[in-house]
Each structure stands twice: as structure tokens, then as C-alpha cells.
Amino acid sequence: MTTPAVPSAPSTERTEPALDATERAMLDGWLEYHRETLAWKCSGLTDEQLKAAAVPTSELTLLGLLRHLSEVEHWWFDTVFGGEPDRAVYGTDEDPDRDFHFGPEDTYAEALATWRGEIAAARARAAKHDLDDLSVGTARGGQHFTLRWIYTHMIEEYARHNGHADLIREAIDGSTGD
After folding, report:
1. What is the pLDDT of residue 4?
2. What is the CA 32 to chain-centroid distance, rounded?
3. Into how many domains does the chain fold?
4. Helix %, strand %, coil % for the chain, to 5?
5. Domain range holding 96?
6. DSSP category for residue 173
7. Which of 6, 9, 97, 112 has the fewest CB atoms within 10 Å, measured from its CB?
8. Residue 7 lies in a domain
9. Residue 7 has pLDDT above 80, yes or no
10. What is the model's pTM?
11. Strand partners, 146
12. pLDDT one-digit tens code per residue, 17-40
């Protein structure tokens, strides 16, 4: 009797961050690595699979994580750092967590394009600034964020959600991988 093969992780290339980079290149490298990891965890699945809440006690889905991180990219780089008007990418007044709530008309193709657009805008804004530059927006206590802080927070945000994505993906089709 043969044991069924466990599916391997999807094959999306990720660029390992350099071991000897400058601080800015290191932060860019780790943020890109985590962005690529999320794309990797979503690749090769159907819209239905990406919308599946694979853990019964949670509404987290891969599509929801992708949409949520579009919101996060926009919020930190455009709204907080750049001072652009606050606009939700997916949320509404009626459903501020709409990034995690979707209907049959919501697709991976649209979410991926939106996410990639928010990343492109974030990269463009960050490229114009030094790590010590301060945000236009402030924390609750009135302090401004450095771009360095925002990079570090974004790496943490992606790392945490990529952990969620790992578990969701494994529950959907058995794929595992770092």
C-alpha cells in the first residue's frame, strides 16, 4: 500500500535578503521577502479556496489576508507617512473589516492587482525618503513615526500574517513551506 504524496508548497520564487546589506537595503529586502511569501502562499489556488476559512474558529482566509495587507500598505505608507487623506481600500463605514468579508464578485485577480498597486505606491513613496524622515501622521500621543519604524512594523505585520497564511494554506491543500 502506498502512502499518498503530500503536496509540496507552491513554487513562487522569493529573493532571500542579503546577509551583508546596508540598513536600508536590509529593510527593503526583508519587507520584499515577506511580500513575496504572501504571494507564494496564495499562488495556485482557486478563488473558492482563497476564500475558504480553513480554521473553524476563525474568519481568516488567504484572500482576506491579501486584501487586509493592501489596507495596511496604504495606511502606513500613504496615510500615516505621506499624509494622504484616509481612504479605505476595502473597508466601508458599514463594514470597516470588509477586507475580510467578500462576496462571489470579489476575486483573487482583483485583490492581487490592488495589493500590487498599493505596494508600488508604498515603494515609490518610501524611495523618496531617508529612514530618519518623519511621518506626517502621528501616533495617539502626537509623536511622528520614522520611516525606519514603519518598515520595521510592516515586516512584523507581514511576518505575523504569513504565519496565519502558512496554517491556512496547509489546511486547504496540505502545502507546507517556510
Report:
1. 36
2. 10
3. 1
4. 55, 5, 45
5. 23-173
6. H
7. 6
8. no
9. no
10. 0.90
11. 134
12. 889 999 999 999 999 999 999 999
